[in-house]
Design a protein that fits this description.
Two copies of one chain form a homodimer.
Chain A: H1 11-32, H2 41-70, H3 77-111, H4 120-151
Subunit structure (chains A, B): Homodimer and heterodimers.
Keywords (chains A, B): Cell membrane, Membrane, Transmembrane, Transmembrane helix
Organism (chains A, B): Daucus carota subsp. sativus (Carrot)
């Protein structure tokens, strides 16, 4: 299979996975420290989606770290096929969660007469913004994975 | 380049483009026939995103139809590269628009005490649902395009 920056077992892939996990954890942290997030379905979906992202990305970060440390090649077709499915599912969920949370945040901030959740409004914005950053980093991984699977 | 159902100039690709245009037009129709959509940023974004999708998909439907009628092969690397960029941009925008509109629709229907827009609530739901159908069909096209570009 092709081998370039970002393929499984490279330092770039490892950094991408760490960034994904970091952004997702930060997004969850900002969201769950608000007192009223559980009243809005989209915010609960964001927490669930980011939680799944943390599990997936941190698992692959460990795998990439192991491959880097032992200098093993871990991208055979079967494994990359699995990575492609997982990456695309989590990337789609991350974008959907980020977009739905942002839609509601913008509704509160711009469309209605300001956000009435007090100090928590900034946390909601930050959580949605971090979800978008998570999506950008997992999106890069997803495209690389599909590319090396298709290129064979 | 590879040639299978769904690659540019095939009947499957043509049907996919027609479906994308149809769902996007239907989504716009339901949204703009509500009287209050312009007050919500996410609903305006849905109309803009679906509008872009209609332009892109109907343009490619015409191209696919022309290729089918004249039996020309239209998938060279440069053209497919262009299709990949356009497909991925519009697919991402469609998913974001569908998710943000759905987030607000669910907020009104489930989280708050029911939707207070009267008869228009069903239209909002239909518009969001049709945007998801648009995204599924453009998503299929996007994956096929990236695959044939990567497979060369």
């Amino acid at each position: 299979m092709m081998d370039f920056a970002g393929t499984p077992g490279t330092a770039t892939a490892f950094v991408l996975r760490i960034l994904q996990s970091f952004f997702a954890v930060a997004s969850i942290t900002f969201m769950v420290t608000t007192t009223s997030f559980y009243q809005v379905t989209a915010f609960c979906f964001l927490v669930a989606s980011m939680g799944l992202q943390v599990l997936w990305s941190s698992g692959l970060a460990i795998l990439d770290g192991y491959a880097l440390a032992t200098k093993k090649v871990i991208h055979n077709t079967g494994l990359v096929g699995l990575f492609v499915v997982g990456d695309w599912v989590t990337a789609t969920l991350s974008l959907a969660a980020a977009a739905s949370s942002s839609g509601i945040t913008v509704l509160y901030f711009n469309d209605l007469a300001g956000c009435n959740f007090g100090e928590e409004c900034q946390k909601l914005q930050l959580a949605a913004g971090l979800a978008f950053l998570t999506w950008i980093t997992i999106g890069i991984s997803s495209v690389i994975m599909l590319w090396i699977l298709a290129a064979g």
